[in-house]
Input
Amino acid sequence: MTRELPRIKTNSQQFINFYVLFTLLVYNGSFFEKLQAIDNNLLFMLCGTIIIYGVLNVILNLLFVTERVTKILAISLVIGNAFAYYFMSSYNILIDKVMILNVIRTNIYEASDLFQWKLPFIILGLGIIPALVISRCTITFQPWKQELKLRLKQSGIIAVIIGLIIGISPQRFKDIANNHYELRYALVPSNYIGAIIGVSKMHKELTRPYQAIATDAYVEKYWHNDKKNLFVFVVGETARAANFSLGNYQRDTNAALKEYKDELIYYPQFYACGTSTAVAVPCMFSKDGRQDFVTGSELNQGNLTDVMQNNGYHSLWRDNNTGCQDNCNRIEYEEACMGKNCLDNVLLKGLENKLKKINQNTFLVLHQRGSHGPDYFNRYPQDREAPYQPICKDAGLKSCSREELLNAYDNSIHYTSEFLQQLIKLLKGFEKDYNIVMIYASDHGESLGEGGKYLHAYPYDSAPEEQKHIPALLWFPQSTAQDLRINKQCLRRQAESYHSHDNLFHSFLGLAGIKSSVYKEELDIFAPCQTRKD
Ligand SMILES: [Zn+2]
Output
């Protein structure tokens, strides 16, 4: 025999008041932490809470207009809130348009890394159970005229209270609104609702017809040998500059690259143009720099791979990540791993034969899985002892000590160095027939608990340094330096100054001898150190 759950009788105003309070107290720990970080003062916190309570209350008074509508919205929101709470509390992330875009573009395999054992409990406890309780409510509404009057009165009182609070110090509240974006992206549910609306607005961008770029381009051969060119672009993943020994990190995470020290040039001040794969990778291949780049434009606008391909360079994208993010739509693409958890050396499998077969000017992109978290311990070989122990083996991150977390992450960087070492070794085999240049740049950095932050994808303007400051390096053999007439000392000097992803598109074009109106010489890192004219 089944017994029905008891029904809860309430009226619309009681329901709205309680619902707002429940939303603030249960799902918004992260928001209040951020508010407290701005000013740890009781009065300030109280004022902030009243304002947010009031605003949410007014919005729900506009939306919760009949019992049916109220229940559908309230239930949908508690389920959405539970998911938002899980991700925000587990990884201390913020939710914005880019974060939602990342979720859409991430494959199931990568997403599974983010799900921990506590997810079903949180969804049950903070999503399904509240939804069941709401479904058992009988919410009475007054006749619509009285209901409207009541709501207008309540909203009016709230507006006056908010006005009085802001009136105490309007400039202070204005500053907070302008300078603390993190509050907006931390407030549940408005953060994910705003983000979903933002992504759906991108629809226009996504459905624009394809537009080729650099249609005026041509190649001016400046090299004085008959060798072909082989330009390799290693797109790193989640490597941050702070943990590269080439950039003075105290641990020798780049040990494997020591033997090529004289042929490497490291860029100690290189910055990403996004803090997530979905933004940074397309931006790395775009002709537009960070300021002008429009997320989504990669779907219908040509990029670096197209320009190289259209100018006689066989362009090949080999992937061990979540795909090429629409940057290889018109060139050859190879999925190196086929859905399993592969180490990056899979990118080198059969590469030698492949390059021999191509046998022409080549632009090769290798898209690493690099140091993608939170399971850093899966990013390096398990069949031998990794250099840094003990390690964090919990994708939850927060349960690990900082040392364990750094150890696991540093092991992944150590392995990236080994991968680059193997790649260089392989490329050296082509030195006789090719001018070879390899550029490595990570897509974005990572937070490893600094300021309580983990992972990446923070909104760019408020993102911590660790998510934006990335490692980048160049490698080319001495023979290429001579044949492409690159002045290495000059490049080394230049490398010390500020560079960013904005430099990549133009540097590859310059290197390849491609002339076009889209090319900007001032962004080409080789231009000042290379003799391209007789
Ligand atoms: Zn990434």
